[in-house]
Protein: Acetyl-CoA acetyltransferase
Organism: Methanocorpusculum parvum
Amino acid sequence: MREVAVIGAGMTKFGERWDTSFRDLCTEAGIAALEDANVAGEQIDALFVGSMSAGRFVGQEHVGALVADYVGLGGDLHVPATRVEAACASGGLAFRQAVAAVSSGMSDVVIAAGVEKMTDVGDSTDVLAGAADREWESFAGATFPGLYAMIACDYMHKYGLTREQLAQVAVKNHFHGARNPFAHFQNEITQSTVMNSTLVASPLRLFDCSPVSDGAAVVVVCPLEKAREFTDTPIKVLASAQAGDTIALHDRPDFSTMGATVAAGNSAFRQAKLERKDIDFVEVHDCFTIAELCAIEDLGFVPKGTAGKFTEQGETQLGGKLPVNTSGGLKACGHPVGATGIKQIWEVVQQLRGEGGKRQVEGAEIGMTQNVGGTGATVVSHIFRRA
Amino acid sequence: MREVAVIGAGMTKFGERWDTSFRDLCTEAGIAALEDANVAGEQIDALFVGSMSAGRFVGQEHVGALVADYVGLGGDLHVPATRVEAACASGGLAFRQAVAAVSSGMSDVVIAAGVEKMTDVGDSTDVLAGAADREWESFAGATFPGLYAMIACDYMHKYGLTREQLAQVAVKNHFHGARNPFAHFQNEITQSTVMNSTLVASPLRLFDCSPVSDGAAVVVVCPLEKAREFTDTPIKVLASAQAGDTIALHDRPDFSTMGATVAAGNSAFRQAKLERKDIDFVEVHDCFTIAELCAIEDLGFVPKGTAGKFTEQGETQLGGKLPVNTSGGLKACGHPVGATGIKQIWEVVQQLRGEGGKRQVEGAEIGMTQNVGGTGATVVSHIFRRA
């Protein structure tokens, strides 16, 4: 297996991008990434696109070919393009296929993109419910806020998590988002903002939930041995791990533990030959505040049941022991579902290059990502180091 | 790169499977493939599922995880599952990801599945239009029969193809389908059946068009060096090639030549180090009769403009110089879009094992597949040999 490096990254501003179509979002992020990587179209061997539900959001399938065409790779160049989907983990999985294509020797320079255009429809909650078990969850009325509310209830009951601790996850992510010029929300909030916001599915309130966003993010990878032909700051991929679980939440032995996060995390640390303490910062999948707490526990950074206190003590904020979601996370940076997994990697690239600006993690050397599909039926996790 | 072999294959009967749900189709084909490969769930490292539009056909995304769960791989085993989509080429691309996962060394035993449940909705033509350029083709009224009718008009005008020659493609594929117990249509037809059938989009009539079908197909791959632990008849993957093109037909320089088929075919023959004459039979993407003629020309088997005559002379039928679509092709075997690419490989496995029954190609040693997304924005092609 060949070693792989990220040589470029670009993203659009996330948000309600009513001025910009699905394909234009891809082009905007794609051109930014290609310029960042100093790569020309003729050098691209393959393209992978993560998108959850373009078929329902914009009536368009076959989006790999569409994106390749609109970034100028589809015609005479005949660049092969593949869409990858695993609900909100689609972006992370597109990156994983790009890593496989390079490490197998099939391809050299490969693009991994993620995109979603969600704000054009009125039934986004129903579209997103396609990530759960349609027959046994969605048809019974369970939406995603409802499913994660069940996780939160179970967790609070078992571990005594307070409402204030849960709110602090959103407060911290808005603090980070206010320092990211690409974030959907760039304003700070307080615990009372969260606790007085509209109840969505008890105990989750509006500010516990990530928003419906438009956006795209793109990264470029190549064999590590060739990376310095393109950039002085290649980012080495130390681990690429993926795990699955039952599609339905009710089939899991423990609502508060995401078994696929545990499995993918263990696999990632084994591949990277690292300890938890070696990780300088992590981007995790905070589709709801409760999900961030489960994630940092299930990845093994803190013992089960203690992530609320860890967060309350400021340890997950910039300057803390383990900065979590410096991009603003899904909560503040936004959550165009297919784009999120690539945006996490974009943020790792910024941090490891020392280009994090006002949200820079001091001395960042090693970063990690965790990207979730559904309530944890798919989890993909990567570890990166500045090469 | 490690060499890869197919060690098992299974499929459902294709057709109007109103008795069987999306997930049950997958389970039926999956169990058949696992039994054929003598593989237990504990041995599976990864699963790839090709499905074009489960989000619109059955309201379900995240179908990788769903399928893994329902074949018993999603719970404690945490098997990673990934959906791959490129319209009607989704199945072929799922197989290609499985090959990449094995050849990279990431995984050993990998499942590639394809599935579509199409007959539950009334707007399947609009769903399928998501494979074209929604904004510049579908919104303007172009359906897939319409787009392929433009190809047929252009081809007939340029090369003098007769209506009878075009009809013969369907006649020949029904002849083959009548010998495949898994085919949607198992009846023979005549040229007059085709030429007197309802006009769909001139010059294409009902019997020039592949049907809307339900079905699933599954194959299992592993490193070639381990294949004999599972089977006495491993099938070696000699080439895996993919190429792209513009998403919209109107952006191509020549309607009658599928540039991505030319590119993928050339790449496949280079990888396999073979000549065209070495191929004993081929499964190509005959979504419409005209597409089969273009395919065997663009793959280089006959000169441009001569495939009609070649077909009329019986050379593409069992016993001819190059049997094409012995499964019955999309026309007679049926076309559950995501499943078709895997079904093509299933047929190659049957033939190379000598298990083709009444449709066996005498002395078959090397087989090839060509699977198309849209009007050729994605083409994936594989070559196989009995190991």
Remarks:
- Chain A has a mean pLDDT of 97.
